[in-house]
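Q: How would the structure tokens look for this protein?
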Amino acid sequence: VPRSLAFYAPAAAPHEYLLCGLGDGKLLYFPLPTAEDAAPVLGAPKAVPLATQPLSLVAYTADDGEPLVFCCSERPALVHASAGQLLFSSVNLPAAHALAPFSCDALPGCLAAADEESLLLGNVLSPARRSGGGSYRRPQVSTYRLGEQPRRIAPLPTRRALALLTSAGERAVPGGEETERYKLRVFDDSSFAELASAHLLPDEAGLSILVSGLGEEEAAEAAAGSSVGGLGGGGGGGYIVVGTAHILPDEPEPTSGRILVFELQEGSLELRHEAAVRGAVYSLAELSSGLLLAGVNNKLQLFEWEAGAPRLALRAEHCGHILVLYVQARADFILVGDLMKSITLLQWSAGELTELARDVNANWMTAVAFLDDDTFLGAENALNLFAARKRADAPTEEERGRLEVVCEFHLGEFVNRFR
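A: Here is the predicted structure in token form.
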């Protein structure tokens, strides 16, 4: 629910903005139309979570002439601009429920900030002055002690939470052999209070995590006649999907694992479904149609979520890999990063997974990503980046089946994720 509005006209940005503070602590900002725009309509809004309580916006001018907007809440923040972009900086106040410019001979250019118990007179230095004249100041970092090793993380936006796979050493008896025990933990993304947790089996390792609606949002929107697209690509749904492997001492490579589908309830994680697979689930991804992709040892498997059952049903699989370590999806296209066989482009069409092209070079992949439908980015263990493109215009089918490497760059650093 909108609670406060303010106009912001920064000198360093190409647009003026309409800021809207919401009751849940989010800030929406809309680019205002310029004189060159054909139609006087607001641009698409962007949302920034600043607090958990309603925001009250106060626009004012700093003592150096820089226009600023102060966001009052239990976590005060300052809106400013640099290099044509809006920036959001925290303010070292425990809370500020109201703010107003207050200037007199004794306190020129002062601000009055009030919370439930006190009134504070002071000033907020502009970010440029706080950083010694530069455009950016040093960010404030808060540390939360997990007490365990974080392994994977995924945001749960619908619940304003973070889902983490963690591990910690445990001993069955004092002085005995230490074993690693994995756990799924969910935290509030603002306060970092733990909302729920669930242990995996003693011999089970959590290898991948995905937050997804599993197509249920799309089905609900279609039934309601909504024109809004679904949550393809993962990250916006209400289920937490975890891929695991059973680690046994006599197996050089895991031969069994599970795909677990959890749903966050009040104070607990409910296991909605578990699917046994023949291998380690190294990666998970979601197609735009709500289908679930899983890299299981040397296979890419595609599952469909049947909400009525509920269960995951295997619909298709693609073989011919060494280990499917990384999977990315874009519309119906799928990019696979292999342990040794570089990248492969697949397509889900007519109920089948079809290989379109592959990189014939032997790269040990550490991360993959789509740049667009025809261009792909990869990182490998020799600390290099490369880009490859699909050769749709090649004259022969053999040439079209090979990806062309169009760019290579030695980064000199290990890359484990593209965002």
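Residues 243 and 259 are 5 Å apart (CA to CA).

The first strand starts at residue 2 and ends at 8.

Upvote if useful.
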